[in-house]
Amino acid sequence: MKTWTKRFFYSLLFLIGILLFVSYSCSTSKTGSSKTAFADTSPEVIIGKDNLAVLEAMQGAFRSIASQVLPSVVELDVVETRQRQQFSFGDLFDFFNRGEDSKNGTQEYEASGMGSGVVVRKIGNIYYVLTNNHVAGSAKQISIKLNDGRIFTGTLVGKDERKDIALVSFETKEDVRVAQLGDSDLVQQGDICFAMGTPLGYFSSITQGIVSATGRAGTYVNNISDFIQTDAAINQGNSGGPLVNIYGEVIGINTWIASQSGGSQGLGFAIPINNIKRAIDDFIATGEVTYGWMGVSLVEINDEYKEDLGVKGQNGAFLSSIFLTSPAAKAGMQAGDYVISLNGKAVKSVDQLVRDVGDIPVGKEAEFRLIRGKKEMTLKVKIEKRDEKMVSDSSKLWPGFIANPITDEIRTRLSLDKKIAGVVISNLEAKSPAAAMRLQAGDIITAVNDKAVKNLAEFYAALDTVGQKEIWFDVYSDGHTLTTTRYKF
Fold first, then answer.
1. Are residues 344 and 258 in the same domain?
2. Do residues 184 and 253 both lie within one domain?
3. What range defines the domain where residue 189 resides?
């Protein structure tokens, strides 16, 4: 027993020694590998003093812009009354088969929203905040939160759907920073800019980018179309906030984004501030924006159209129809005129001419340079106030459609014989004189007052309403030739 005990004792010591050795070895190995894995072998980052000075200067400039402008940027929390259709649970059949005769009514409910704005004016103790119409235009309650946390109750001063702007006021004896407005006509592609506001509820934020483009068209039918495009991040909640240049001046009001995800994809759009400055004065003075009106329908035309009309190579705006009692008609303008300048300023697009006419004070005379029948002439038009009821009444819009040249494509689509000559009707206005004469889109006008017309130039020359008491058309439609009723002036 003693011999076995000694052997067991020595064997146990031997095993303990092995375990200690292994344990020590593992510990040493782990410690060593740990040192190797976290050893800092990366080279030291060295930025040249000159380069660092440039970056520090840029960073300092960005900080200065933020500290200068953000105190005038506000968050707008609004409550508006909306309507939703209310269905009766008592008539399940009507719920699934509702139509025009459905007796279900509407139910009003309150909805809250949030946007941004910028303080642009102070008169006495009243401050004025510029924002979007779609942010505050329908609000029944408005709360204004400043950059420093102060909160005031806002009042809607005025709104305008065409420009998508609204002006809100609040009163205080306390000091509030008023933003400086820049000159958006000086903005160029590539300019550095900053978008400010409360995107997605993140209060008093600033993002930086460049001006991607100017003069962009919008997506809203009733809006005046002219926007600054930027890649500065703009999200929901930024609407109504300012787009700012490197001088800390407001050059635009952030309005909408193009996005497939609903968030920023580097395609943000702002209303140029120069398109808004006069509107601010109008809001404060009368509570609404006053637009000048000449009383015509304008369209963009392509090169093929220009060639057929005889104005190839000319920029301008084509007058497709005219309100018979409008300022333009009184001055002698006619459908078919091609406007190339306004008060000495070249017309580059329809959108530009619409904006420029709208900004002319009511009662002021404007000088239009135009081409009619390949001849240039000048007409002076006394601008009147835009009346939405009159604008929407197409019964006096002569002729009430767009005439188009018969291209090879149109001839093939309508299966027209090569002998058929004239102009083809499109964009016919309901309740217009043309509609009253039973004309339809796709009809071919071959003669005016029994005088054959072969192209656009001849058609609009024959359409001259001066000295004529009535006009009628010869029309080719669905393989038949007919004569319309006579429209009396």
1. no
2. yes
3. 180-286
Is there a contact between 306 and 312 (Cβ–Cβ < 8 Å)?
yes
The pLDDT score that the predictor gives to residue 4 is 44
* pLDDT single digits (tens) 104-142: 677 788 889 999 999 999 999 999 999 999 999 999 999
Spatial CB neighbours of 439, under 8 Å, sequence gap ≥ 6: 401, 425, 428, 473, 475, 484
Same domain, 204 and 219: yes
Among the listed residues 398, 329, 336, the one whose alpha carbon sits nearest the alpha carbon of residue 370:
336
Instruction: For residue 22, name the pLDDT band (cuts at 50, 70, 90).
Output: very low
Contacting residues for 43 by C-beta, under 8 A, at least 6 apart:
none
- Assess if residue 72 is contained within a domain: no
The widest CA-to-CA distance across the chain, in whole angstroms, is: 144
* 223, 163 Cβ separation under 8 angstroms: yes
> Which of 286, 306, 332 finishes a domain?
286
Task: Summarize the confidence of residues 238-262 as an average pLDDT.
Answer: 91
Poorest-confidence range of 236-250, 274-288, 333-347, 467-481?
Answer: 467-481
Q: In angstroms, rounded to a whole number, what is the distance separating the alpha carbons of residues 452 and 441?
A: 20
Active-site residue (options: 239, 264, 320, 394): 239
Annotated active-site residue 164? The verdict is yes
With cut-offs at 50, 70 and 90, classify the pLDDT of residue 220. low
Are residues 340 and 315 in contact, defined by beta-carbon separation less than 8 angstroms?
Answer: yes
160, 164, 308, 443: the catalytic one is 164
- Taking the C-alpha atoms of 416, 420, 423 and 426 in order, what is their torsion angle to the nearest 10 degrees? -20
Catalytic residue among 72, 134, 204, 264: 134
